[in-house]
Amino acid sequence: MSCSSVKKYNEQRTSCIPAEKLKEDVDYAHAKIKEMHPKLYWYISKDQLDYKFDSLKQTIDQSLTPLEFYFKLQPVIASIKEGHLSLRIPIKKFTKKEIKSLYNKKGMFSRFEYYVDGEHLYIVENKDSIENIKPGTEILKINNIPVAYYLKKYKKLISSDGYNTTFQPYFLKDIFFNFYSAEFGFNDTAKIETLYNKQVKVYTLKRTEKSKADLEKDKEQKKKTLEKKVNDYVAFNNSYNRSFKFLAPDSSIAYIKVKSFSRSYSEKFYKDAFAKIKNAKSKYLIIDIRNNYGGSLDEINNLYSYLAPEPFTLIKRSQLTSKTSPLKTNYFRKSNAWQYAYKSLIYPTYVFSQTFNTYKKDNIVYYKMKADRETKPQKDAFHGKVFVLINGGSFSASSVLTAKLKNDKLATLVGEETGGANDGTIAGFYSYQKLPNSKISLPIGLVLVQPNISFTNTERGVLPDVTVTENIQDILNKKDRHMEWVMKEIGNEKNGK
Known about the structure:
The chain has 15 helices and 19 strands. By secondary structure, it is an alpha+beta fold. The protein has three domains: 2-78, no CATH class; 105-206, Pdz3 Domain (Roll), CATH 2.30.42.10; 225-315 and 370-420 and 465-494, 2-enoyl-CoA Hydratase, Chain A, domain 1 (Alpha-Beta Complex).
């Protein structure tokens, strides 16, 4: 049944859908967004958005595959300027046998780290020394097509919250080859034309088989120790989402890096870290949330409780479009037969809890969340000087956290404008709609989440107190300008300058 389902999906994905049916999908997407999105006209007027959807329908005059249709509809949805609102690109599905085959092979493009600058794509890390390609190499073409063509095409698909100016290149460097693979599949070879030191070279990348040692390493990495759980280990790139250390011999400077607010074992991580900070009597704390795309509100609420000097409320009351919105979250989504049966048994409890958490006041529908209640500071809360490192890759929950810290004057923000908006975003939980004819998935955030602050109304990200930027040369030289500025500032303060 599973193989049959995959086959049916892939056949539908490559079939052409009549223009009239695609226009029905445009109307369906527009209607569902209007129905469920709690602040749809935040960054675009109703007239502007209606015009864009109507104009799109005028351009659809022939049959298209779902993928072709995606590249026409997604730019319109991106124009709403809500970073969480985006169609899921209709990528090919694989059978279990195909997945196992791919697992036994090394990635091709995923084994590099990238940097995007305008219409240029650079390799900044080559962990496996593939073809001895040097960091700093620019990829000019992929299979004879200029990379600039793809960058222009894919940029139209990405939106941050509002009129943010920094998010796109950070997100694009991470998702570029997701788009590319959706278009061209997971091939075993690719020809790339590169430029390094003014010399143009052509390489053929190959998806090679993993050695026995590689497979053993993969197996070892999957083993979950307590340390891996607490620091939220990610086997895919052999790294940790959370880390803690002291940066000075006297332990006066503590450093916490969080790559994602996943919540997994986060309470123990912060409890242990801040106990060590208190015991060491550290005077300075650096929190690094650069390239952190967000995650759990409960985790950032807990982190804030270790920084607050008095009781606080992290976010304002969260708004919905209707009292029934929480029941549109596709409760049975991705459930196998046993999960479906179990969820069916507890569904009445789920309905009751969702209904209980939803209430109406002054004609506005609200949803109760833990982060909108008053929270007391932790007993090991830090009361020294806090620096927070941010950049355009700091999105969603990262922006909620930094906006609150800045408003309450609890930290000095160092870096560049965050990718998420200062005044809130639309996320919380989602309704996963499926367009009826193209079958493309459209997740719609149902909750307006806003930090409990005085709003700036700038329609931008959180702006740093101290602007520090980096370029590709800094990355290649492993020169961390953000940390350099903070360490210099701390040094000056220690020396009384």
